[in-house]
Amino acid sequence: MNQRTIAASVFFIIVAIFFILAAWSMRPFGAPDQSAMDDYIIQNTQEEAGANNGVTSVVFDYRGFDTLGEATILFTAVAGVIMILRREKHE
Questions:
Q1: pLDDT at residue 32, as a whole number
Q2: Could you tell me which residues come within 8 angstroms of residue 41 by beta carbon, excluding any fewer than 6 positions away?
Q3: How is the chain split into domains, by residue range?
Q4: Side-chain-side CA neighbours of residue 14 (13 Å)
Q5: How far apart are CA 59 and CA 67, in angstroms?
Q6: Residue 60 CB coordination number (10 Å)
Q7: How would residue 16 be classed by pLDDT, with cut points 50, 70 and 90?
């Protein structure tokens, strides 16, 4: 076996262990109760997030990292399309 195959195998094993541990540590499906989460957000938005708008507080405060990830993916996709479709000047 060459070094590349060994490195790929070790990487695959580490990722597989991570996925197994992540799946094992998940809560049971449906917990917490969705209506309880809605009530919690409605009652605690102004105190915890300091926002008057509940939707804004969910998007930017409670799910900030998720929103940042989505924005990063969108930016990367747009940058990729621009790089593919740009025209190069020939002199």
A1: 62
A2: 54, 57, 58, 62
A3: 3-85
A4: 6
A5: 7
A6: 14
A7: very high
